[in-house]
Specification:
The structure is a single chain. By secondary structure, this protein is of the alpha+beta class. The chain has four helices and three strands; from the N terminus they run ααββαβα. The chain has helices at about 1-20, 40, 60-90, 115-135, and strands at about 45-50, 55-60, 105-110.
Amino acid sequence: MIALTRLLLGAACAILPVLVLPAQDAKPPAKADAPQGEKAKDPTFVVAMVGADMKAMAATEVDAKKKALADEFKKAHEAWQADKKAAEAKKAKFDAKEPVQTAFEIKKDGLKTMDEANAWIKEAQAKAKGDSKGKTDDKPKGKDDKPKGKGKV
């Protein structure tokens, strides 16, 4: 009988703190949907030139994208250096070019929606296409376009 009492008392002492401690938590749980500052209320989008491509992304993703590009470059450069050292050790010719970091430039920021960002990209691409088609270096030569200089008059 005493052994049964001690067993129940030991179980109660072990379970009681587990049940009581969470009830005494002074801080209410943080809400995941609660806005934190102005940026959370108004998410903005940016258009960035990544290499030769324009991409629309959330403004919060910019730092992560820059870090990913830097890590990618670092890995490629380390692999290039290892290949170069291996070629030098073998006294072989090494023709591989050194990797270049991908350019990252924000072209437009402060856009309200992703659709607005994509529309801006389409406009910029159309404008670039129109500029390249409109500019021609070949001018038709007429009577007045003769080269001036010493020659027969």
